[in-house]
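Review box. Two proteins, two foldings.
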Amino acid sequence: MKKVLLILLILLTALIGVGGYFAYCMYGAVMNNEETAYIYLDRDDDVDSLKTKLLEVTQPSPVLGFDLSAKLLRMKGNYKGRYAVETGASMMSVLRTVRNHLQSPVNVVVPSVRTMGDLAARVAKQLMIDSTEVAQVLTSDSVMSSLGFDRQTFPGMFIPNTYEMYWDVSAENLVQRMKKENDNFWNDTRKEKARQLGLTANQVATLASIVDSESAYNPEKPRIAGLYLNRMKKGMLLQSDPTVIYALGDFTIRRVLNKHLAVDSPYNTYLYKGLPPGPIRIPSIAGLDAVLNHEDNNYLYMCAKEDFSGSHNFAVTYAEHQANARRYVKALNERGIK
């Protein structure tokens, strides 16, 4: 009898030990990554690839805990998204997070770029979707129309900033989110400032895109905006070189020449008065607010400084402007810039 009890005790101890080990593998703090890690599951990933990716970020690899937890949670199918693996977390808690699709958002930077193609490429690098998917949506006339824009005005819908969103967001939902951010940006205060200028939001975006293209130096942008508003009030041609470059579609041009100025395009502000049909790039927040809060000045002319600092010389009279331009042209020639 004593031998039987001893055997039973040994078996019970072993059973408790094995059960405890199984429980530890599933519920214990088995994630030994040094800091929070993230796994990215795309639309092609299944439970097996989830296992592979999860074990890549944990040391030692708790294979048994994964197999037991996945079976207990009846995991199957696809769980696309970005998920956090906290240091010391249990396998069960991590898999439950994945199964319940409790993603960790990413910070997506929407940049101020020249074209929709550039935007698609930059955004796609930060999300699960590829650039082709994004580009298809960004060039869809039906999508633009549903949001109240067209091909010319669509770049003005995007407000460059950093946005928190899920890694597996669809291209369609991404664009819808950008429309909401545009609506939030154009609050009553900004709408009233645009109204006082006699401009629509789209026209503000168009002028802001020209200001951004003229200068990357934010403190100078309100002055440039004031200059262009002065020209508009006087019925003068805007004569902005970046609009000519946009019309030509050649962004490698560093020096706009007379032959370039002849391009027949509504975006050529040397030929057509007023603003172009739409933005020549996605305008920045600094550019938009520079227009809405422009400097009240008398300037009508501007020319890049001859020191190539990125800032400009401003002039009230054409004679002053010609003197500034001669210095800049001389500097271009000296550097062999054509």
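Next protein.
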Amino acid sequence: MMGAKEQVIHVLKELQEDNSVSKNIKQKVSAMQSELEGCSENDLSLTVNKILCDLEELSSDVNLPPFIRTQILHISGMLETIC
């Protein structure tokens, strides 16, 4: 069974592999995934909070397709359970 952090990483990877996601969103999601993978347990809370801020900014884009916005909100909810 995957931990919460691993589940978030898995969903971020799925979002990057989705062909309907624009390149700039994939780049931002990839950066978030790298940050999460590279953080230690001591830095997890800070990293999660930074990613939550980034996701909030990303989800406020008016040009974001509804499906992607839903995925981003789902990831945010998953991250909130980590801290």
